[in-house]
Amino acid sequence: MIVRRLPITGVVVAGIAALVAGTAGDAGVVDSVFSRAAVPWMPAAPPPGGLTSTWYCPGVPASPDGDDERPGGLVAVFNPEDEAMTGTITLLTEADGDPTVQSFNIPAFSSHSVDVDELVDSPYAAAVVEIEGGGGLVEQQATWPVGTNSVGDSVSPCANTPSAQWYFATGDTSEGSRDLLVLSNPHDYSAVIDITLSTSRGPRQIERFAVPAKSVRTIDLRDHTVNDEVDVGVTITASRGALVAARAQTYETDTRGGYSMVLGATAARDQWWFAAGERADDIEVEYSIYNPGPDEVTVNAVMLGFLPARDVAVVQPEPVVVPPGRVEVVTLEDAAGIPDGPVSAVFATDGALVVVERTLTRTISGIRTTSVTPGATSRSDDFYLANTWYLGLGPEVATEDGLQLYNIDRTDGVITIQAVTGDGIVTLDGLDAIDIGPNETLRLDITEEMLGRQLIIRSTTRLLAERVLPRETGAQGRVASWLLPAM
User: Fold this and answer.
1) Continuous segment of H or E residues that includes residue 245
2) Residue range 445-463, pLDDT digits in tens
3) What is the pTM of this model?
4) φ, ψ (nearest 5 deg) of residue 271
5) Which domains does the chain have, with CATH numbers?
């Protein structure tokens, strides 16, 4: 295991302390037990116990059998406990008729996956996973053809609950790109929604759109006069019912390429965090800031986690003023003095609410791979941020710098990496006490002994954890997504 430590400078620590006063103070040691749940928040791992836990997977392509490079996807259920886990997976499609229901029984410390495209035929299919007795982890993997002889994989945690409100900060319909909203309604009654789109030519409205009970509907933004746009902000509001919203984005431009399937944010917030990011000649990192409110908002960005060269001053990006209903973009080029290497980031306001997503494009041998990642947030009711994170879906091959971790606190921490094996949860050799400094970023390799296993990352301080995975076995490029934090 290679550990790469990247402490931030004193000037940046001072800047972030001002931005996040009250949420990133001297937290001390945080107990590793699960905290109480709260809504809205990012997808998170619930504690075991209770009657059931329910997960809502936003959707994967579900084309019929045929070409090996056809669109497709899977839903994976992970059992990190010492008792067998039972439940059901219900697949929702665009077709009329009853959903497809499949039961499962997962032995202790094991997992179960379903190839969705083998069971149903639909442009996109969503899943509702109900686990008896609570607990468990659920993630999805969407697969889409990229180019003429490759496919792109996009991993996403599944949601803990439907919501009446969803947001996206960036979408691309320029050149050959396609921005598709994937909306699933798990309830027994129709959901009625209104959609507001932010474009460079002003707002666009999709009013009174119905998503029938237990079904999936897709909206191609090109069908609503939204074309040749690079950053489309989206607000989805249900006037009746609740749903799950995701964005399936294919990129085909001179500067972006690939496929990304991203769950939306259920709330606008005044603070957004990113653990992964990188400055290099072949990498472009952009942060799209969407203001869904009626008043302009000033947003401060602080880039974190790097050690600048000696005698080189780091100049953070200028504050960004985002007009109401618009999207503004911050790039790493807007900051000076950031050396090559990984970069974490935080975006904060004085209390006004925005949504922030990161778009990362890596170019290798002329081939571009673009992935989108929404920011992480603290839990809204108590400013809770996790010190324990879970990885279900990992790479198929050993991956250098596959994990990027950021210590959000201003205190030293100790990280332990564990794996779920057939014999139980074990601490991996040499990974029982990894030091992490205040406001420090680490990059860790995903090694052979980690492959095919659930991973648990525990820290004595609050942590942010992203995986940066190969796009597919043997292919170029990577895609980033969050691990699941403990509630």
Assistant:
1) strand 244-252
2) 999 999 999 999 999 999 9
3) 0.90
4) -155, 130
5) 3-42+268-485 (2.60.290.11), 48-146 (2.60.290.11), 165-263 (2.60.290.11)
